[in-house]
Amino acid sequence: MQLGIYIHFPYCLSKCPYCDFASRAEAVIPQERYTEAVLRELRARAAGYAEPKREVVSVYFGGGTPSLWDPHQIRRVLAACRDLFDVQDEAEITLEANPGTTDEGRFTDFRMAGVNRLSIGVQSFADSQLLVLGRKHSGSDAERAFRTARAAGFDNVSLDLIHGGSGHTVEAAARDAASAVALGPEHVSAYALTLTGLAEDVPMAKAVRRGEVVLPSDDEQAAMGEAVRRELSRGGYVRYEISNFARKGFEAVHNTLYWRGIEYVAAGCGACGFARGSGEGAFARRYMNDRSPERYLARVEETGIGEASFEEVDRDQHLRERLFTGLRLAEGLDLAALEKDLGLEIRSPFAKVIARLVREELAAYDGTTLRLTERGFDLHSEVAVRFF
Ligand code: SF4
User: According to CATH, what is the number of the domain 332-385?
Assistant: First the structure.
């Protein structure tokens, strides 16, 4: 069985106005105290994943801005992961980095600590768009961060792009994608700016509601997405997930675990974990750590874990989640394997839904695997809802 480990680092240099992540701008980061809390939580969590034996194929440091974490502390966390879990030699070990928060010495130290993949939050190469997004780095900082990563020995680098900020145009979005391609990373994530869900309360969403900020229309945003995909495809990147593109063999291991419904351990403020149960009770359990760094630290120091809430996931809920996430992948969803895994009938109760998707050219189906077409990808949420 495969397993991932997600470790969240909540601190940033400043808070971006569109950000709904568990993140906090902090002038003085409690490096030692935070590391101790994460180590303590990892030790407590390991027991829940001990049987049956799982092979860790990915460790992911997300944030926040984990490139602000001292490399020495990252090394300690990775050593604990190896002590407590069966981390495979070839495991993907990713660290998110922000342009402007790093230098070659620091990147080299991360590499030496065992990190083998960097995910750089570029968002845009245009300074005007970075200003709109409230980012504190420039386009040239992003290019420099990429070159620094290469100089430090990273041969697996992902760049994150966002399109659809105020004033962004189809041409500018295409230029961002072309600039990413010109650098030649192994992987690109390209998301549309969304201000829904938790993001409804972020400053940018409030400014939009007050009419102070005007975002591109849905149609304009869709056209930007199309332009970005065109540039990435021209550059040789394969769209293996709705918003993720890679050179062959460089698809993100970690996120693919989420999309395939595989378990992951979580440690750190705001981190979410997923563990399959056994027996007749709940099929699985999802737990959510406290999103406030202070409360997270206090909880771990008191109880050993930072958990603020959890939910039991039954088979039907897991089926809905797997349909939602699995259909994001170009490889599609193997419904026969899913039936076996969940002990549920899927193909026959949903036969009419599937037949209609195929008729409308939203999906292809070979009797086992259901795959969305490009058009289906564009309407993914609407397609997934038809199963619910
Ligand atoms: S750097 Fe990333 S995590 Fe930090 S505030 Fe900005 S978007 Fe959020």
Answer: 1.10.10.10
